[in-house]
């Protein structure tokens, strides 16, 4: 009985894939960035929902593309009697495409407007290029990194580095970081454009 149990355990150990830990030099580098202040090279979007879950749709990709995306199922209003299509609406801004169950855009203001056309209770905050932000936390996941930032006006949101591969290293991370941030003198103010919620 015990020998059979040991055999099963050994089979489990050697067949279940082991998740690789991020390289040591990358983990060390990430620690040095915490609480450091940088200016943004990109616009960052945060979606605020009253008494509900905030959404952080800003994604950076390896080719330098910045895209804002959110699952429509996460933002649809709970209105009985309306089909998914009716709730989503038929018109999409030129920079927006509805990919399956996602709203995706490359222009931050158009993206926020499209989200609000689906659910007007959402308020969108766009943190503009050149804004001064502090790195609060960096979480290294399997295929992406989650960068938590805070502006001088205390807007807290996240940026996702979408590596799209199982193994990424320090050079990969630095490439994404250089796409997103610059080190410079403090900006005179945070050029944040907040789109108010309205019924």
Characterization of this structure:
The protein contains 6 helices and 12 strands. With 199 residues, it is α+β, with helices and mostly antiparallel strands. It has one domain. A 9-stranded mixed beta sheet has the order 5-6-4-3-10-9-8-1-11. It has a 3-stranded antiparallel beta sheet with strand order 2-7-12, covered by helices on one side. The termini are far apart. Residues 12-19, 79-99, 185-192 and 194-199 have low confidence and may be disordered.
List the helices and strands and how they pair.
Elements: H1 2-15, H2 24-33, E1 37-40, E2 44-48, E3 58-61, E4 66-71, H3 72-75, H4 84-88, E5 96-99, E6 102-105, H5 108-118, E7 123-127, E8 132-140, E9 144-151, E10 156-162, H6 170-180, E11 181-182, E12 192-195
Parallel strand pairs: 3-10
Antiparallel strand pairs: 1-8, 1-11, 2-7, 3-4, 4-6, 5-6, 7-12, 8-9, 9-10
Short description:
With 199 residues, the protein is α+β, with helices and mostly antiparallel strands. The protein contains six helices and twelve strands.
